[in-house]
Amino acid sequence: MLKRNTKTKQLILDSLKNSKSAVSQDILLKELGDKVDRATIYRALNSFCDDGIAHKILSDDGKYYFAFCVNCSEKAHKHNHYHFRCLSCGKIECIPNEIEVKLPVGYQSVNFNGFISGYCANCS
Ligand SMILES: [Zn+2]
Ligand SMILES: [Zn+2]
Ligand SMILES: [Zn+2]
């Protein structure tokens, strides 16, 4: 059973990695639905976040999306970047530039949630 689990997780990880934009549980279910069930996808995606290989994005459509991390580790997740949702094709992307936000003295940031919607280069 453990082995099967690992294989399934690998399948989900591959889809996440190969996708050029962030994926939601629904997108993965459409892609892998004949092999993996919804709960397994959900668990796998959240465990990738814990492991430092993916990050979670709350979109302005109210859904969670997941993107593969490029320069993160389990201890040092850093995502001070905006996410962009295209209103035409629905794609959600990481905008790679890291943002530096100036906070008042004594404040420490833990999470940055920047979100932009508009039209991507293919659609505008
Ligand atoms: Zn990360
Ligand atoms: Zn687009
Ligand atoms: Zn991102």
Automatic annotation (TrEMBL):
GO terms for molecular function: DNA-binding transcription factor activity; transcription cis-regulatory region binding; zinc ion binding. InterPro entries: FUR, WH-like_DNA-bd_sf, WH_DNA-bd_sf. GO terms for biological process: negative regulation of DNA-templated transcription; regulation of secondary metabolite biosynthetic process. SUPFAM superfamilies: Winged helix' DNA-binding domain. It comes from Chryseobacterium glaciei. Its cofactor is Zn(2+). Binds 1 zinc ion per subunit. Pfam families: FUR. Zn(2+) binds at residues 86, 89, 120, 123. Gene3D superfamilies: Winged helix-like DNA-binding domain superfamily/Winged helix DNA-binding domain. Keywords: Metal-binding, Zinc. This is Transcriptional regulator.
